[in-house]
Amino acid sequence: MQLTMSGEYAVRAMIHLSALPFGTVVQIADVSKEWNIPENFLRKISVQLARADLIVSQRGLNGGIRLGQPAERITVLDVIEAVEGNIFLNKCLVCDGVCPRDEWCQVHTLWAEAQIKLKEILTSKSLAQLAAESFTRKAELNEARQRTSAA
Question: Which range marks the domain in which residue 144 is found?
Fold first, then answer.
């Protein structure tokens, strides 16, 4: 399984929104520019995120997008599944009986364990935590680069 660009862009946009005070409305064009996301693509993704109640889209003069719930309650898994659908590492995990071997096949068991671990990792931190860590790391790198260029 590989994350598509839809999932990648959705996570980037949600990290941006999560770094802002809850309720802050931002223009899609601004998020697009800041995070290198094609604007039209972000508009399509925003519809999916809004359907999942992860963001609220506001039309009009002061329109834009904002988080639909506090970033502390949203995980990367929530974002990915909103745009990609449920994650399944193999088709045998979609539902019981899809594969005639799923009751005895140890590879099926391994896929199931790997899927559980992946979901655990993707839910281990909230978007609020990831946004804070990302922006702290970005500031540290910028500081280090300034020191290096000044030397």
Answer: 5-150
Please give the Cα distance from 64 to 27 (Å, whole number).
5
**Do residues 131 and 71 make contact, with C-beta atoms less than 8 angstroms apart?**
yes
Domain count, the chain: 1
Please list the pLDDT of the chain residue by residue as tens digits (151 residues): 678 999 999 999 999 999 999 999 999 999 999 999 999 999 999 999 999 999 999 888 888 999 999 999 999 999 999 999 988 878 888 877 788 887 788 888 898 899 999 999 999 999 999 999 998 998 899 899 888 888 7
Q: What is the CATH number of the domain that holds 73?
A: 1.10.10.10
